[in-house]
Amino acid sequence: NAGVTQTPKFRVLKTGQSMTLLCAQDMNHEYMYWYRQDPGMGLRLIHYSVGEGTTAKGEVPDGYNVSRLKKQNFLLGLESAAPSQTSVYFCASSLAGGNNEQFFGPGTRLTVL
Amino acid sequence: ILNVEQSPQSLHVQEGDSTNFTCSFPSSNFYALHWYRWETAKSPEALFVMTLNGDEKKKGRISATLNTKEGYSYLYIKGSQPEDSATYLCAFGTGTASKLTFGTGTRLQVTL
Predict the structure, then answer these.
(1) Does B86 touch chain A if contact means CB atoms closer than 8 Å?
(2) Which of A41, A58, A106 sits opposite B99 (nearest CB)?
(3) Distance between CA atoms of A15 and A109, rounded to whole angstroms?
């Protein structure tokens, strides 16, 4: 099993460009999450999904959109990138809700110039 | 926004020392408390998921306790080794607990 994978690993964007980050999991998990990690701050939840076809906002959703068309994939979109979105993005999945451990992907380092 | 606090922010111990960290969280509407270990250049990995007041969990030299009534959890490492060097994160789930709120972590460095 590959676990949780993220594509791409690194990306540099110019302000205003758009991109999509892909998260895939092969563990048949219901829940998937997108976090961002910034220096001095904990992992902050952007959006999450409790099942195929569902999405919900987390703590810092502005400027991002998500889709969960297939159970194994969770896409994070930036429609018009801003320098404030420079961060490391982590995807995670869990079998179900809060009493199940989350499995994290390797992260995507995004720089917006 | 829920407030999950971890202390200390960082810790530097010698090999063989035992150490502990604290995670504080709101005592109301508790659902679950997670501990994760995060090594540099890797991804967080779960250590423990705790749901019951008074719960104690152990994995090798690492153990954790939970007090939901007063809103804290302790993580203990007995006989620290250099490979224990990592950031230790706690995360709190409340209500329906479809999501977690993470603390900023305790960074542990163990030297010979």
Answers:
(1) no
(2) A58
(3) 16
| Residue positions counted in chain A | 113
Confidence of residue A97 (pLDDT cuts 50, 70, 90): confident
CA distance A57 to A75: 14
Nearest residue to A4 (alpha-carbon basis) of A29, A37, A36:
A29
Give the pLDDT confidence of A37-83 residue by residue, as tens digits. Answer: 998 888 999 999 999 999 999 999 999 999 999 999 999 999 999 99
Question: Residue B44 and residue A50: Cβ atoms within 8 Å?
Answer: no
Q: Is B16 exposed, middle or buried (0-12, 13-18, 19+ CB in 10 A)?
A: exposed
Q: Which DSSP string do the residues of A21-90 spell out, in sequence order?
A: EEEEESS--SEEEEEEE-TTS--EEEEEESSTT--EE-SS-TTEEEE-SSTTEEEEEESS--GGG-EEEE
